[in-house]
Amino acid sequence: MANSNAQRRSSATFKRYIEHSEQSTYIEVPFQMPEQVEEIHVRYQVEAYGRESSAVIDLGVRDSVRVRGWSGGARQEFNIGQSQATPGYLPGALAPGEWAVLHNAYKVPEEGCTVTIDIEFMHKTPRWLKGDLHTHSVHSDGAYTLEENAAIMESLGCDFIAMTDHNTSSQNLAYPRETSVLMIPGTEFTTNFGHSNFLGAMSPMDDFRVTEMSDVHEKFRIARERGAKIVLNHTHCDHCPWEWDFEVDHDGVEVWNGPWDERNRRALSWWQEQLVKGKRLVAVGGSDVHRPGPHVKHAMPCVWVWSEEKTVERVLDGIVQGHVVITHAPDGPFASLQCGEFGIGDEVPFDQADQDVVVQLDGLRAGDLVRLYSERGFEEEIAAETDGERTLRFDAKERRFLRAEIWRYFQQVERTMMAALTNPIYFNTNVIVRD
Predict the structure, then answer these.
(1) Which residues, 6+ apart, have CB-to-CB distance to 70 below 8 Å?
(2) Per-residue pLDDT at 3
(3) Strand, coil or helix: what is 322?
(4) Which of 72, 220, 310, 372 has the fewest CB neighbours in a 10 Å radius?
(5) What pLDDT, on the 0 to 100 scale, is given for residue 431?
(6) In a 3-state reduction of DSSP, which class is residue 315?
(7) What are the CA-CA distances from residue 420 to residues 77, 226, 363 (Å)?
C-alpha cells in the first residue's frame, strides 16, 4: 500500500491495408483482450494513397458476443470502461478473448489506404484512488450541475465523486458519462436529528421521513438491502450533529467535514475513543461542498482509498475494509503504514505482530508534524526538517492499533491544522478488550 496511484498499462498497434475493391464492405481487425483489463482506449488514423488522397473509414468495436459500439466517421478514438464509456459505446465487463475493431470502408481511393490502430489497455491494478464522498448539486440545495461537479473533480486529478444530494436519488440517474471520474451513487439521508450518507445504491430509500429511532433503523435496513454502504456525517457538528443512537448499522463515520475546525477535532477525539474501546470504525471525510466559496471546496478534504480496481464496488469495498487515508487536498501530504505485507485497515496476525511498522510519508513540508497514536494515546511526534519524503519505523509491539496524523501550519489562515489522517493498522495481540 505504498503511495502509488500508478496503473499498469500495455499497448498494441495494428495496421490494415484496405484495397479500393473493399469499398462499401465491413472489415474486422481482430485483437486479443488480455485478462484483468479495466479500461481500453482505441484511436485510429487513415493514410490515403494516390492523387485522390481522401478516404472515409468508419469506426466501431465488437467483443466476443456483440457489437459494443459504433461511431461511424464521427470519432477518431473511444474509451470503454467497466462503468463508463464514450458516447456510442457500451460500458461493462471487458471479458478476455478475441475482440475486433470494426471498420466500414465507406470511401476508398483507387490506390487504397492504410488504417493504423493503437489500442491501450489499462489493467486492473491495486492502487490508491482519490476523490470526494460528500458533495451536492442542483438536485438538492447545491449550485453546481452534475457536469460541473465532474469537471472540477477531473481538473483536480481525482478518480471518483459521490454526489450525495439531500433525500433524493435523482442525481444518480443523471450522472454525466463523458468524464474519467467514477460516479458513486449517493444520497444524504437528512433528518432533523442527524445526517448520513448512503453510498453505492441508486435508490436507497423510498421515503426519507422519520420521527423516531425505530424509523431510522428501518431506513438503514432498507438501504442495506439495496446495497448501500452507510456513513454517519459530521457527527459532532454544532448545527446538525448526529443526535440519534450511535448503535446503528453503519460502515464509517465522517470525522473530517470541510475545512478542519473544532467540530472535526471533537469527531476525531470521539473516534479515537471508539478505537480504544476496540471498535474498528472506519474514518472518512468529505467536502460537503454546495456552491463556490473561499473555504469549502471540492475534495477538501480528499479521501484516498486503496482499491483493487476503479469500480464503484471495489472503491466501496476498500472503504469498508478501512483502507482509507484522508488528506486536506488532492495534492496531499500522504502517509501510509505497512507491517510486512499488511497495510492500513489490515490486521497483522499474532505471529507477525512483532515487526516494526514502516511509516512512509510523502509530500511533506519542512515544519510538518507527524504524530502517531495507538490505544495508549499519543505515542510520538516527529518534525519534518525538509520538504519531500521521509520513512519512519515504529516498534508497535503490544499495541492493538497504530495510526498517523500530519499537522501543518497554513500561512493563509495562520493556524496549524490537520493535513493528513490515516485509518489504523491493527494487530492481533490475543488480548481480550474489556470496556
Answers:
(1) 58, 59, 60, 88, 102
(2) 59
(3) coil
(4) 72
(5) 54
(6) helix
(7) 39, 33, 10
Task: Please answer whether residues 327 and 334 qualify as being in contact, where contact means their C-beta atoms are separated by less than 8 angstroms.
Answer: yes
Distances 423 to 77, 192, 403, 405 between C-alpha atoms, Å = 41, 29, 6, 9
Domains, the chain, ordered by start: 9-123 (2.60.120.380), 127-427 (3.20.20.140)
Query: What is the residue type of 287?
Result: S
Other CB atoms closer than 10 Å to residue 227's CB: what's the count? 16
Distance CA 175, CA 68 (A): 21
| Residue 17: exposure state from Cβ atoms within 10 A (0-12, 13-18, ≥19) | exposed
CA distances, 358 to each of 81, 211, 351 (Å): 35, 48, 18
For strands 186-191 and 194-199, give the pairing: antiparallel
Q: Which residues of 158-172 are buried (b: 16+ CB within 10 A; e: fewer)?
A: bbbbbbbbeebbebb
Ranges of residues in the chain whose predicted pLDDT is under 70: 1-4, 431-435
Neighbours of 48 (CB within 10 A): 18
Which of 198, 189, 128, 191 has the alpha carbon at shortest distance from 162?
198
CA dihedral 429, 407, 3, 86 (to 10 degrees): 120
DSSP 8-state code for residue 219: H
Report the distance separating Cα 158 and Cα 398, nearest Å: 38
Cell of 195: 445526517
- What residue type is assigned to position 383 of the chain? A
Strands 160-163 and 324-327: unpaired
| 403 contact partners, CB below 8 Å, separation of at least 6 | 275, 337, 372, 373, 374, 421, 422, 423, 424, 425
CA 406/CA 382 separation, integer angstroms: 10
Q: Roughly how many angstroms between the first and final C-alpha of the chain, as a whole number?
A: 32
State the pLDDT at residue 354: 75
Q: Which cell goes with 222?
A: 432498507
Between CA 428 and CA 351 the distance in angstroms is 9
Displacement of CA 160 from its chain's centroid (Å): 4
- Check: CB of residue 267 under 8 Å from CB of residue 254: yes
Write out the H or E segment, with its range, that includes residue 150: helix 146-155
Helices H / strands E in the chain, number of each: 4, 30
d(CA 237, CA 258): 11
Q: What pTM was computed for the model?
A: 0.92
Q: Cβ atoms within 10 A of the Cβ of 192, count? A: 9
User: Which conformational region is residue 141 in: left (phi greater than 0), alpha (psi within -120 to 50 degrees), or beta?
Assistant: alpha
Q: How far apart are CA 248 and CA 230, in angstroms?
A: 10
Q: Tell me which DSSP letter residue 432 carries.
A: P
Amino acid at 227: G
